[in-house]
Known about the structure:
heterodimer; A: alpha/beta; 4-stranded antiparallel sheet; 8 helices; 24% strand; disordered N terminus; B: mainly alpha; ABC transporter involved in vitamin B12 uptake, BtuC; 2 domains; two-stranded antiparallel ribbon; 70% helix; disordered C terminus
Amino acid sequence: MISPEPAAPPDPVAERKPFLRVESISKHFGNVQALKDVNFEAYLGEVVALVGDNGAGKSTLVKILSGTETASSGTIYVEDREVHFRSPRDANAEGIETVYQDLALCDNLDVVANLFLGREETPAPLPGAPLGEAQMEKRSKSVLDTLHIRIPSVRTAVGALSGGQRQSIAVGRAVLWGSRLVLLDEPTAALGVAQQREVLALVRRLREQGLGVVVISHNLQQVFDVADRLVVLRLGQVAANVMRSDVSTEDVVGYITGAQTVTTAAYA
Amino acid sequence: MTTTEETIVGSGADEAVGVFNQPASPVASPLRTLLDPRLWLASGGGRTIPLLLAMVVMWIAFDIDSGGVYFGSQNITNILVYTSLYGIVAIGVVIVLLLGEIDLSLGSLVGLAGCSAALVMVEWVPTAPQFVQMLVGVAVSLAVGIACGAFQGFWIALAKVPSFVVSLAGLLAFSGISLVITNSQTVVITSDYFNAFGSTSTSAFDGGYLPTLVGKGTNPLHLSVGMIVAIVIGIGYAVILLLNRRSRRANGLPTRGVGLLVLQALAVLIPSVVLADFLDRYQGLPLPVFIMIVLLIVIAYVLRRTRFGRHIYSTGGNAEAARRAGISVTRVRWSAFILSGLMAGIVGVIFMARNASASAGAVDPSFLLLCIASAVIGGTSLFGGRGSVWSALTGALLLASLQTGMTLLLAGSTNAQYYQYIVEGAILLGAVWLDTYSRKRVVVDRGG
C-alpha cells in the first residue's frame, strides 16, 4: 500500500520553536555512511520517539546530539543558536543530558555519589576540599521526590537497586543537572513489565515538568504509549516524521521496513 | 531537638566516614551488621570485624605459646614496625586496586628508591652533616618513587598498556637498575637521622621513637608525644563526627544520637591511648609507625572525602561511566600510580633505614606480594571500586602479627619461614574467596 504524498508536508508542531534542531547531519565511519542528511528537531514539553531498525542510525544520531560523536557534516542549533558539541560537557552546558542504555552508573557508589558523579559539590572551592555530603544528599532527596522516584535510601549502593530504580536514578541525574532535553537510549530494554511501566510514567512526568524528551526504542507499543511524535530512521535517513495521533502501528512498521514512505522533509 | 530526629533511619543515615561503597542490606543497623555474619561478607567494610576477631584469637594463642613474650611491649613495637613496612606499600596497592589495576613493581621500587637514597648520601654528600644527609636521602627516595610511579603511570594511563605488563616490566627493570647502580654491593648508611626512620638510630630522634615528655614510659602517669598523637586522633575523630552531624542537621537530614557518637569516638580514643601507653613502656611510638598513621589518615581523607578520591572509586567501579561524567580517567589513573610510587619511595627510606644499609637484594620478592595480600585480606577488592586504606592496615597488621608470632614460636626451627609462607598462602586464599563470595551476593541482591 502506498500512501499519498502530500505536496507540502505540514510541520507537526508548527506553532512552537524547537529547543534543538539539527540540519542535514551526516556521519560516516570510513566507508560506512551511518547518517545521511538527517534533519531532526526536539521541543520542550514533548516526547519524541526515535525509531528504526538495527543499524538505521538511531544510536549514531543520539551520540551526535549528546556530544560523544561529532558529525561529519551538518549543523546543530539550540534555540536557534548554532552550537558545536565536541564533548558531552558541551551538550550538558546547553541543557542536554543523555541517559545511556547501560545507564553509566557506578554500581559500587551510592545513589548520591552517582547523581553527582563528576560534578561533586564542595562547600569550599579549594582543591582537596571536603565533599559537601550533606548538601548533596539533600539535593538528591529533593530531586528524587520531585520525580516520585522511590528508593530505600539515597545511601544505598546503586548495584543493590532494581533495574527500574537504576534507570530512574540515571534519569534523576539528568534532571538534577538542570537538563532541558533528556535523551533516553532504550530506557526499558532490560526491564521487567512493572519496571517498564514505572519508567514510562517517569518519562511522562518529565514532559509534564516541561522538559523535552527524546526516546530511542525498539518497542513500538511503548513508543505509542508515551511519545507525542515519531521520527523514523531508515538506512541513515529520516523515513518519517509524524505525530503519533496521525499514524497507526502498521504505518510505522511500514516506515521502518521501507514498505511505506511519507515525505515529511520539513527542511528539505 | 525531638526524639524523632534522633532515630537512626537505616544505614542510609550513616554520618560517619560514609558507607557509599558498602552494598549491604539497606535496612541493616550497625548492630545487625555486627550480629549477622552474612552481612559481614556482603559489606566490604564489615570484613574488618571477623578479621579482628581472628586476629585476637591468634594473638592470644601466640601469647600463651610464647609465655607472655608476644604481648610484651617490645614485641608489640616490633609488630607495628613491620606493619608499617607492609602497610604503607599496601596503601599504594589499595589506591591502585581501587582502580581495578595492579602494581607489581612496588617491591623493587622500594629497593631502587632506598638504594638511590643511600648512594647519593654516601657518594654525593658524604661530608655533609648527618641531618642534611638525611634530608637529601629522604628527598631522593621520594623523588625516585614519584618519578618511577609517574613513568609507569604514563604507560598505563596514556599509552594504555595493561598495568600488569607495565609494572611487571618495572619490577624487572627497577631491580636491574638497583643492581647496576650499587654494583650489587651493600651500601652502609651512616646518617643516624636517616636510620631513625627505621627506629634503628643510636641517638637521633630518640632512637627513632617519639619521645616521652613528662615522667617515665613505664609509669602509667606520663605524657609522651605518642600519647598526644593518640589523644589528638580520638578527639579529632569526635570533632569530625560532630561537624558531620551539624552539617546534616543544617540540611534537615536525619542524624544519629549524640550518645552513639560519643561511643564511636570512645571506640577510637580508648584503644589509641591504651596502645600508646603500651608502646611507651618500651621506647614509645616508633617513627615509621607514626608515618604510617599520618599517611593512613591523609589518604583515607583523600579517598573518602575529596573529589579526587570519589573519582578513583568511580573509575574503578565503571570507568566508562566516569569518563562520560566528565572525569578525566587518564589523569585519575596517572595520579594513582604517582601516589603508589610515592608510597614505595617512603618505604624505601624506612626499609633501608631499618637495616642501616641498602642493597638491591634487601627487599625480598615476596615483600610486594605480601603487601598486595595485606590489601586484599583487609577487604579491598581485586576487581576495583571496593575497599579502603583501612584494609591496608588490618591486612598488614594480620601478616605482621603472624610473622612475628611464627618467628617466636618456631625460633629453633630452620623451617620457620617456610611454614609462614604456607599459612600466609592459606589466609590469602580464604580472603579472596570471601571477596568473590561477597561479589556474588551483591548480584543476587539486585535481582531481589
